[in-house]
Each structure stands twice: as C-alpha cells, then as structure tokens.
Amino acid sequence: MGAFWIGSCGESKPDPCETDPGPECPNYVDPCEIDPQPGCPNYVDPEMPVLASSITIGTVEYVVDDKKIEKLDDDLWYMYAQTKNAAKPLIIHSVRYTTTSTGYGIETWVGNDSITGKERPQAMVNRYEQAGREVKMVINGGFFGMSEGGTPIGWQASKGLLTFLPSEGEELNFPIIGFDNQNLPYMDFMNFTGKVKKESDNSEWDITHINGGRWTDFLVLYNSYRGKRTGTNQYGIEALCNPLERDWEIYDSYTNVRCKVEQISTQGNMIIPKGKIVLSGHGTADNQFLNTLKVGDYVYVTVDYALKDNPKITSTTIRNTISGYPYIILKDNNVIHSPGLEPALENQDNPRTSVGYSADKKYVYFTVVEGRNPTQAAPTISAGVSTGELAQVMQYFGAAHAINLDGGGSTCMMIGKDTKNFVSDGSQRAVADGLAIIKK
After folding, report:
1. What's the rounded Cα separation, in Å, for the pair 304 and 192?
2. 67-71: which pairs have CB atoms within 8 A and are 24 or more residues apart?
C-alpha cells in the first residue's frame, strides 16, 4: 500500500512525493542528471569546441597551461590558449564561427570608408554601432602602406564593391580570403577583368586598376572609396560618369553597368561624388579613348574579379575580400613555407593575425597571437610566432586552410567593445581595414 498523509480535515490523501516527486522529496531524481538540457548546470553544448592539452610549435610539443572556451552567441565561440614554457610562451585568442548559421554577416570594413582613411578597430566598432549594427567581433585586416596614408597592399572588396585593386607587380599576386553572402569562405589568388565600352561605336579600353595611382598609359576607375578627389595631376583626361540604375556602391553585379558621361576635365584631381565614378586616363588611355568621349555619351563599365582556380566564382559570389601577405600559410592541412620570398615573416617571432577555415568549410577561425609582450607591460608574456608557426596555431584550433594578415602593432581582436589581446604598440593602431562579424 502506498504512502498517505493526513489533510487539514483529517482525510487521508496520497503522498505527493509518490505521485509527483519534487526537489524537496527524498525520492526526487533531478532530470539534469538523466538528460541534461540547456539551463542545467551540467549541460555541455554539443557544438562547444574542444581544445587539446598541448600544441605543436615548430617541432616541439608544448603543454597548454591555460585554456578557456566561452560561448559568445549561437554558433559563435571564443577560445583562449596559453603556454607558459619559457622556450615559447604564447597567448592566443580565436573566435570560431559556424557557417551554417544564418544570423550573422562577415564583412570587410574599410577604414573611414576610404583607402587612405586608416582607422582604429575601436573607432570602426563605434561607427558601425552608431549606424545600428550589432558588432560581435572584429580583427585587423590586410597589410597597408604606412607611409602612403594607409593604402592597402593587395586586393580589397566590401559587399561586392572592389574598393582597391593593385596596379601591377607582386601585389596583384597576393592571395585573398573571401566570403560569399552565406559567409562561406574562399581562399585563392585572383584575376581581374575591367573594361569600358563606348555605346556609340563599341570601342573599348581596359581598366588598369581601381582607386590607385594613375601612371603612364593607365586607365583608372575611381569610386568614392578613393576619397573626395582623384588626386591626379593635370597630365591626362578625366570623365565623371553617373550610373543610371543606382549608386555605384550598391550594384549586385558590375558587368556592363550603363553610365552617362556628365563632365570631362583636363585639370586633374576631379571631385568624386558618392554614387558616381571617375574614369581617369593618361598616355594612350587619354589620347586613344577618353579624348573621344563627350558630355552626354553613354558607356558600359565592367569591373569583376574571379578565383584563379575556379573562374566561375566571381564578385557576384564573393562579396567581401581581404588580401594576405605574401602567401597562403596553410592549405589542405599542409603548412606552407616560403622563406625565400619573405625571410623576416617566415623566421621572426611577431604578433600575428590569421583567418582560416576547416576542411569542410563548416567553421571559420579568426585568430590573433600576442607578441612583443614584455612582463613589465602586461601581466603575462607572449613571444609571438613566425608565419609557419602561425599555421600550426591555426591547425590547433581546427583550420585546414589559413592566410596571414597584417601583424605586429596592427594585430588586434575586439569582441563587442572589448579588446581581447595585448596590443604591442601600447594602444590600437589605425589600420586600413578589418574583418567583422555582424549580427543580422
């Protein structure tokens, strides 16, 4: 016979601990012990990253003395690893993003929306949040010219708009990390296609590059990311062109964009109104093409880029790109060494920034390694790494592909408004661009 208890009127009633045992009952079984769910103290998220207890750097395996894993949001995790071995002390921060998530966007941020408008990551975050964006994370981006106002070294595209294209030389051969509208990552070298065709006679001319200097025989396309003016001299011709369907910055495709010529100038340094473009030519581009244009003419402008290994992947797919330097450091889980190309990068320990992704493209890793971190300037020490060692760091977190971004004093990771790493300059450096994760 089951247990009973006496009610207030003397009647017998079944013991509630027998019928529906609660936490106060001796026979109560905590459901968290049987099947832990979110909210249970012992619940372990199946998507939680797992960090190994050791990391291989060079040929040596080091104990990871301290590690932390924190869930920032759905499908977004922060990871921290520290080695305290005197031979290679390191402090590493990484954010893992799950690409199957639809709640975020990965964007290239251009400093002050200008290729010469360097900006600190903190200022970028403030600017975007004031515009109503929720910033989850940002890291510094590609290399740039310190003496050239912050002009990027390599390719740069934001939301499908090519904001900078190198004019010539090895910079055209720098690899990129790029993301499509579903935030799937791509890493490769790039090819550029740029043409202007005159509607009246179908004559056309190749565009040399985007937003850079205008040299002999160049035809350069300038958009608003160049700044307020082209910065050219008087030795050439410039044509202000107005795209007919929408502002230049917001096209989904830049193939055969019909534009109307609104102004022709031989004075140089033309104003670039937002939403419009300037075609600027010198030498043959001036004499054989631009000088045939007149106000009121129509031209078709094509600006496109594609992956070298997969030409079908173009600017309509890859919307945000940033260049690494000088080479891919991890491909198909193989560490790439190129000491003859840039010995200082390969051999020296420095603060480093990298972006990479897993073999199945499920996860993207945004990683910074602290360096130049003396004990008197920070609570702990981190020696920094070479680019080959940076590739091994990326492998530790789970990447099979990775690229080296700008490092040294530029290395910076912000989560929300908090700077996660020790910044070796003592304060954040103004940089040319950054890669950000935005909550949609």
Report:
1. 6
2. 71/45
- Burial level of 254, CB count in 10 A (0-12/13-18/19+)? buried
* Beta-bridge partner residues of 300: 197, 258
Percentages helix, strand, coil for the chain (3-state, rounded to 5) are 15, 40, 50
d(Cα 53, Cα 55) in Å, to the nearest integer? Answer: 7
- Coil, strand or helix: which one is 99? coil
Residue 178 near residue 132 (C-beta atoms within 8 A): no
- List pLDDT tens digits, range 208-258: 999 988 989 999 999 999 999 999 999 999 999 999 999 999 999 999 999
Q: What are the start-end ranges of the E strands in 229-327?
A: 237-243, 257-265, 277-281, 298-307, 318-323
To the question of pTM greater than 0.85 for the whole model, the response is: yes
One DSSP character per residue, 381-405 reads -B--B-HHHHHHHHHHHT-SEEEE-
The Cα-based distances of 100 to 103, 210, 278 in angstroms read: 9, 33, 39
CA pair distance 429, 72, nearest whole angstrom? 25
Q: What are the DSSP E strand ranges found in 165-256?
A: 176-180, 185-188, 190-198, 204-206, 209-210, 219-222, 237-243
CA distances from 355 to 277, 306, 391, 434 (A): 32, 20, 10, 11
Rounded Cα distance, 28 and 105, in Å:
46
User: Is the pLDDT score of 171 beyond 70?
Assistant: no
